[in-house]
Design a protein that fits this description.
This protein is about 35% helix and about 25% strand. With about 525 residues, the protein is α/β, with parallel strands linked by helices. The chain has a six-stranded mixed beta sheet, with helices on both faces. The structure holds adenosine-5'-triphosphate. It holds the Pfam family ABC_tran.
Length: about 525
């Protein structure tokens, strides 16, 4: 814990930030001390990211000031903040997938005082591995790393550049329980070494597991701050949403119907362009029936992405058979997948699910745009599409002043709700949901879980892929455990426990896909 008498690493005083008529942060006072993990909490759109973007120089405050070690600072660019030792681990990463991990580390913004020889970076990353246990895989292409592995690389990148104040924006979103434990231990070690850590998270269990202090934002303003040991989860939720949140509904019993997705003997190469590369998936057999949620449990990088890509036709299969709704699904393409009644809530929202420069209404109605009633004889009726978007905004509680806003300007949680609104439209026969509540606050998480439950009750088949074992256990009717590219076992919900699933996740042999 920090020495309270010391000057805070970061002090925000009366910080206000407006976007046009909208106030995203209102007179925020906040101290972040060296040696502490400070949880920044609030609903989707409460202003957490905006506030941290001010600290990291991405935005300028309209009023108020930011101090670092007692000195007023005004960073005009993120590089300035990084040079001063402030780094942010973003929800979406800033890595270049076509370069190796080491090459990514060696890339640097101008004027960071840090030797640019690759050998220096390699040595520095080895030092970081020795002190923090954070190991990278220097010669691997980032494109081949899982989201969890990319996150580790982001952290190493910031540490390589001398960051002393680290802001983690929902760091656990893609991590398995084991990886989260490692990250939590890392955060503690970094805090113990004198780093100041900000943790933006919607998961209160994590906050209680690692944080020393909390600050809650609601509608841009601070509504509570204090020691984590002096508050309860219910009190935090009440501060965040302004009232209690309803309990998640208990799983209703549904009798599964016809098989909607059948996968038999699926084998996929790691490198889609090289069939001789080691297998990413081997001998996969799966069945998802109407009215059932099949959960795929596994640590990040076990073959989840390859499975989704093979089913959707983004990645060729070396062998095996896939059927959709009882019919062979050959010559697979994403378009055919959608036309055959498939839908996808992808893990990587920024690269796959949304088109940032397009408006909210265009993003929400994208799947329905070419069909009546939004289009007639191929001609789009924009008024009808905007009306439909407004209806979905209300139904999915997407908070934006207007449907005409570019979707990239919405908070992460509101973007995710827009993706869900689009993908649930038209009641797809098969919904593939990958980490569907990533970045969502408690209330929105509740909403999505209910939507998934209702979709199942209406006879929809859901393939749920998540690194969050609690989520898999809470929602799935059956759980298939994926490790090293193979299904290690399928367990019915009533027989599934954390220990049993965890054992299947880790008991697998490394070969052949690691
Ligand atoms: N560049 C921008 N232009 C207009 N409005 C913006 C911009 N950036 C953020 N906002 C708005 O400011 C509000 C706060 O967004 P912010 O991303 O800070 O929320 P958050 O608390 O981080 O939410 P989440 O948990 O969903 O990530 C949102 O309503 C968002 O739409």
């Amino acid at each position: 814990m920090a020495n309270r008498a010391q000057t805070p690493a970061i002090r925000l005083s009366g910080v206000t930030k407006r976007f046009g008529a909208f106030t995203a942060n209102e007179r925020v006072d906040l101290d972040i001390n060296r040696g502490e993990i400070h949880a920044l909490l609030g609903e989707n759109g409460a202003g957490k990211t905006t506030l941290m973007r001010i600290v990291t120089g991405l935005y300028q405050p309209d009023e108020g000031e930011v101090q670092m070690d007692g000195e007023t600072i005004r960073f005009r660019k993120p590089e300035h903040a990084l040079r001063a030792g402030i780094g942010m681990v973003h929800q979406h990463f800033t890595l270049v997938p076509t370069l190796t991990e080491l090459q990514n580390l060696a890339m640097r913004p101008a004027r960071i005082p840090w030797g640019n020889a690759t050998a220096d970076v390699r040595r520095r990353s080895e030092e970081i591995a020795a002190t923090t246990g954070l190991r990278i895989n220097p010669d691997r292409m980032v494109a081949d790393a899982s989201i969890g592995e990319r996150q580790r690389l982001e952290i190493v990148k910031l540490l390589c550049r001398g960051a002393r104040i680290l802001i983690f924006d929902e760091p656990s979103a893609a991590l398995s329980p084991g990886e989260w434990d490692e990250l939590a231990a890392l955060m503690r070690r970094l805090a113990a070494e004198g780093h100041a850590i900000v943790l933006i998270s919607h998961k209160l269990t994590e906050v209680f597991a690692v944080a020393d202090r909390y600050t809650v934002l609601r509608a841009g303003a601070v509504v509570g701050t204090g020691l984590v040991t002096e508050v309860t989860p219910d009190e935090l939720v009440t501060m965040m949403v302004g009232g209690p949140v309803t309990e998640r509904p208990v799983r209703a019993h549904v009798n599964p119907g016809r098989p909607v997705l059948t996968v038999r003997g699926l084998g996929v190469a790691r490198d889609p362009l090289d069939p001789k590369s080691p297998p990413a998936l081997s001998g996969i057999d799966l069945e998802v029936r109407a009215g059932e949620i099949l959960g795929i449990a596994g640590v990040a990088g076990s073959g989840q992405n390859e499975l989704v890509e093979a089913v959707m036709g983004v990645r060729p299969a070396l062998r095996g058979r896939i059927e959709l709704d009882g019919k062979p699904f050959e010559d697979r393409t994403p378009r055919r997948f959608y036309q055959s009644g498939g839908a996808l809530i992808p893990e990587d929202r920024h690269h796959v699910a949304i088109v940032s420069g397009m408006t909210l209404w265009e993003n929400i109605t994208m799947r329905a745009l070419r069909r009546p009633p939004l289009s007639r004889r191929g001609i789009l009726n924009p008024a009808a599409a905007r009306g439909e978007a407004r209806r979905l905004m209300a139904e999915f509680d997407i908070r934006a002043d207007t449907e005409k806003i570019p979707i990239g300007r919405l908070s992460g949680g509101n973007q995710q709700k827009a993706v869900l609104a689009r993908e649930f439209t038209g009641h797809p026969a098969l919904l593939i949901a990958v980490q569907p509540v990533r970045g969502l606050d408690v209330r929105a998480t509740d909403f999505v879980y209910r939507q998934l439950g209702e979709h199942r009750a209406r006879g929809g088949a859901i393939l749920l892929i998540s690194m969050d074992l609690d989520e898999i256990l809470a929602l799935s009717d059956r759980i298939a455990v994926l490790a090293h590219g193979r299904i290690q076992g399928v367990v019915a919900a009533e027989d599934a426990t954390r220990t049993r699933i965890g054992a299947l996740m880790t008991s697998a042999e490394e070969a052949p896909c690691s």
